[in-house]
Write a structure and sequence with these properties.
2 domains, eight-stranded mixed sheet, seven-stranded parallel sheet
Length: about 475
């Protein structure tokens, strides 16, 4: 019997097509044509017959080169590092195939599956990945679905509290001595800060910039490996994220975004990478950042215009991207546009206050694509794509090719390994401080990733980035 297909998105970039279709076809009902949904369902059905730690192999080509991951394994091997059975890892991750790959790597380096505790976000979780993780032996708190427009952050906070409750119970039950907290988006710090048993040595991993900042803001008093501010993360991964944003946005829109008036609120690394891709498609691009020094940082993008305020940007553009990593309209009144406007969020939490405001308006509705539509006048409306959640996720099992996303996975693995080395140090040395992700390891990961993607059909990296990867000083 074919497992239910109701939870699978028709836009899934199926990574299991390499499987032997002829072997699977006889298990289909008589008269049923072989569709991609069936291939994915049957692949998972067949995976249930395998050993728990082999499940991920069903979804990954055996010959898929993942050189960036091998770089981290070699790093750990040279230092004779392995996680021990008294180390627990709790994390907030995107519960997709990339996290299955990360957990397999952690287990390969000695981490017990029973000592891994994860939660995620409703917009970037897939039921198949969650099933695979659970059957590997990983503890998963399935992400809560917001019950109202603008309720995502409350749902994330609730899941974080439930996750830590399970971790705390596990620590006491199994006499756990060491804890690694992998935070994304400052979602775990509030749940754990000040609540971890005093006899448990603890180190954090800050997955992104918001997490780095959130550690201090939430009273975290332990060392933190700052993956989020590493050069490999914000220079190279920003380009990867921007490419995903454009690919999945155009998929959602049903065609290319070209020759439009586009605005970007937040001109950090993702904003700059996004501007470059938009300009390449002959869009007019206007940007705004409350930190005006961002305009001068990095390589200038030809043709970009700078707005003095958000209302100025909104009035001159029709497609507006938010890329701040913060709640844009928490302290700023949203300027209702005077024409049809499409709002595209690229990071979690950017539109929280706006979504709550719109959710209280009776005329606001959600269409079949999951877009929020708010009529502003007879011929005018505000459209917020994908319920205001980051556009670079489409609820698929793997929204980015594994060869591409391995950069992020390898950096996360490297950060966990470095955190594991730190947590083995004497307790008196574990004071609150930011720890830079090993610069030499960053460089090796990035160059391995660049070599692996030479055959990629995705947008090429800017030449200046490829050149900079050869200079280790770039990563300090």
């Amino acid at each position: 019997m074919i497992p239910s297909l109701s939870s699978y998105s028709p836009k899934i970039p199926y990574p299991v097509m390499f499987q032997d279709v002829q072997q699977m076809q006889p298990t289909l009902p008589v008269g049923t044509s072989l569709r991609p949904e069936h291939i994915l369902s049957l692949a998972f059905h067949n995976a249930q017959q395998a050993k728990p730690t082999d499940f991920a192999d069903t979804f990954i080509k055996p010959d898929e080169p993942l050189s960036a991951m091998e770089t981290v394994f070699n790093y750990a091997d040279r230092r004779k590092f392995q996680f021990d059975d008294k180390t627990v890892l709790m994390g907030s991750q995107h519960l997709m195939m990339q996290t299955v790959v990360l957990c397999k790597a952690l287990i390969k380096l000695g981490m017990k599956a029973d000592n891994i505790f994860l939660t995620g976000r409703s917009y970037s979780s897939h039921p198949t990945a969650i099933k695979v993780l659970k059957q590997m032996g990983v503890h998963v708190i399935e992400p809560s679905t917001p019950t109202k427009i603008g309720g995502l952050q409350e749902a994330i906070a609730q899941d974080a509290q439930e996750l830590f409750s399970e971790v705390n119970h596990h620590i006491r039950q199994h006499q756990i001595k060491k804890l690694i907290v992998v935070d994304k988006g400052a979602s775990l710090w509030p749940a754990v800060s000040g609540s971890i048993p005093a006899n448990v040595k603890t180190v954090g991993v800050a997955h992104n910039v918001k997490s780095v900042m959130g550690a201090t803001q939430n009273g975290w008093t332990k060392p933190v490996v700052e993956m989020g501010t590493s050069a490999a993360k914000f220079k190279f991964e920003s380009f990867l994220i921007a490419a995903d944003i454009m690919a999945l946005l155009e998929n959602h829109l049903g065609g290319p975004l070209e020759n439009k008036q586009c605005g970007i609120i937040g001109y950090g690394h993702i904003g700059k990478a996004l501007a470059q891709l938009l300009v390449q498609k002959n869009n007019t691009v206007t940007v705004y950042d409350k930190d005006r020094t961002q305009y001068a940082e990095g390589t200038p993008v030809s043709g970009v215009q700078y707005a003095k305020s958000i209302p100025e940007l909104m009035n001159s553009t029709s497609y507006v991207f938010t890329a701040t990593g913060a709640d844009v309209f928490q302290d700023t009144l949203f300027p209702m546009p005077s024409k049809k406007t499409t709002l595209i969020n690229t990071t979690s939490g950017d539109l929280t206050s706006l979504l709550k405001q719109l959710g209280n308006q009776p005329q606001t509705r959600v269409n079949f694509n999951g877009d929020i539509i708010t009529p502003l006048s007879r011929n005018n409306r505000l459209r917020i794509l994908r319920n205001g959640q980051p556009i670079n996720f489409d609820n698929s099992l793997q929204s980015t090719p594994l060869k591409e996303i391995q950069l992020t996975v390898a950096l996360a693995l490297a950060s966990c390994v470095q955190a594991g080395m730190i947590v083995n140090l004497p307790n008196e040395t574990l004071k609150a401080k930011g720890v830079t992700l090993d610069s030499n390891l960053q460089q090796k990961i990035v160059n391995a990733w660049i070599d692996d993607r030479k055959s990629s059909k995705r947008p090429p990296l800017p030449a200046e980035l490829v050149r900079s990867a050869k200079d280790v000083a770039f990563f300090f």
